[in-house]
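User: Hello, can you help with two protein structures?

Assistant: Certainly.
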Amino acid sequence: MTAAPIAIQRTGLVTSVGLTAAESCAAFRAKISNPTETRFIDSSGEWIMAHQVALEQPWRGLAKLAKMAALAIEEALQDIPRAEWDTLPLLLCVAEAERPGRAVGLDDQLFALVQKELGVRFAPASAVVPHGRVAVAVAMAMARSMLAPSPSPTKRVLVAATDSLLSWPTLSRYESGDRLLTARNSNGFVPGEAAGALLLGQPTGETDELVCTGVGFAKEAAHLDSGEPLRADGLSQAIKLSLQEAGWQMHDLDFRITDISGEQYYFKEAALALSRILRVRKAEFDLWHPAESAGETGAAAGALVLATAQMACRKGYSAGSHILAHMANDAGQRSAMVLRQGAAA
């Protein structure tokens, strides 16, 4: 292993199936979903269905993103005295620049709105991480550097992610590209919105602790809209790099958890990557995808993935102690993380 491991100490989630991590993960485990009609109509005259987060008021745009993020952060930090919150660096994960219909103000306004909601100013090392579905993995790598031993080491880092695909500029682009799941199109996803927060720190050795031991990144040339034949080169490379950091082989892992939200391209990519890396036959190698319940949540997807894995370890229903998580952006960015439960070898 070439990098120090980091532990996910606490989590918070806000999704269409729960306003806490416990509620959301229970729904994920039971495969419960809650799609409802939006205000938008597709080209066939049908209401577009989506996984919408129900808050006490019908906030939209940046205001809703900030409200969701604040709720998730408050849950993740509920055991930390509020007086200590300003010592935490916040890495705020948002949609990538290439995202259709990307909200104006994500890079220069949202962070301030989140701080205002919470009534706190986070540490100067805080940053916005605008990398979409791979943003949480990027933030994990950044947090690992912050937590590395130094003359004045950071004790904890807060990673938060918030996103929504439920605006007409975004939905219209996906609908015109036949990417939404409808009665006429089975090869698509149900759009959604969500927020998540992860409190990171040094591993303590607790048996139910979720520890990240490897992170890998790569670029897929044959991305969704490239027209090139898919060989899963990018995802395979990202997984190999994460395994190399962890000091493991693919067959050492027990199951996979990903951001896949319904499109055949991403299921095919996951299957191809597995076939290219796995060299020892495994009777079972489950693939978990929380988007089955929460929909396509963009930059928040990585937080859902890690919070689901952490809750499974805490509650004792994990499919094993060694886990592979991987995420992908439409433009080709790929990320993978190797996770372990507690001090498992």
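That covers the first. Now for the second protein you mentioned:
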Amino acid sequence: MKQKPTLSFWQIWNLSFGFLGVQIAYSLQSANISRIFATLGADPHNLSYFWILPPLMGIIVQPIVGTLSDRTWTRFGRRIPYLFIGALASIIVMCLLPNAGSFNFAVGGAMLFGLISLMFLDTSINMAMQPFKMLVGDMVNEKQKGFAYSVQSFLCNAGSLVGYLFPFIFTWIGISNIAAAGVVPDSVIYSFYVGAAILILCVIYTVVKVKEMPPREYAEFHGIQEQPEKKEKSDFITLLKNAPKVFWTVGLVQFFCWAAFMYMWTYTNGGIAETVWNTTDAKSAAYQEAGNWVGVIFAVQAIGSVLWSMVIPLFKSHKTAYVVSLLLGATGFISTIFVTNQYVLFGSYLLIGCAWAAMLALPFTILTNALSGKNMGAYLGLFNGTICLPQIFAAALGGVILKYVAGTSIMMLVIAGVLLILGAISVIFVKETLGEKELKPESVK
């Protein structure tokens, strides 16, 4: 098997640049979904149920995209056609979702329209997002893979920073942050419009700049047959049975981490509205102001993630970096219960950003090092289940936990901190491999 060539910085950059636009779309969704549905009239105890759709669509779409793209070849490549189609669908839905309350529907009709739009938005975002992870696995050698995923993490967080700040910036320049009852403010609607425009421009850049390996070259670099026989094709169940052990051990860590962040996305708006703005009324100007501030502190989280992503490569062991990052994030979550000043929240969310940086880079570095190229896309799609399933689980139980355990939205963030501590403990079960060979700690950069 031939060794994949060493890529220049700009080649690695171009592989992931479109991810910037995809993440802007994803961050707009993450920061504003609870706000949008609360504005439309949803009960706070039911907000978590609206969050079941995004990961549910992800767990369906990403394995399919991964498997189909493993078996696809066009003159544009194997992964790029899927990300381009996903991006086109995303920009259409991004223009529809925030207008759910603007079409004179009754409350139930507006929420149904919003739910359908959310389902299609997350389907298309997942379709556009997954190919970027696959491109790194396909084209970057093992020595550069950690760096490549760090670059992807940087672009991801830069996109998050932009998307999270849009409503705050538009309000600052004079666009209305309040609207009639049941209608989403213009500051949010325009944020989705601009995010859609940036998304398609970024994806076009990657499409123009990146040339994927043709089938023969891909086969040579990954040690597989150029045209595998039909009997070699495996279904999802077979692939899961044959998955490397690290697929499952990292998946356990992922379970706790992604459940924690699901509660952050769902309950931060309500939590800081309670503790900093002293309101639980989703129709009040104070609640909408808190909604804008969610974008600001999520942007601070993205800054913390960017800064920490530069520190992670300095650790001698991926596992040590993983544990430290998750414990810092847990500290950030738990500290929010003591904060009553909106600016002090910056410290909490900088720490949360450390956990986010590790979650974006380390699991995929550890997993792809243990995989051959033969079913790379399929395995990365299936691995997305370790992201989606915990979110579905957390969303399904969120209302019950809020009502009977937490009591308030801010306590849900404390629970998120406890989940990250459990994730850090779970890292002890992870044993890194390169194929079947276990890597010693000193060999892990």
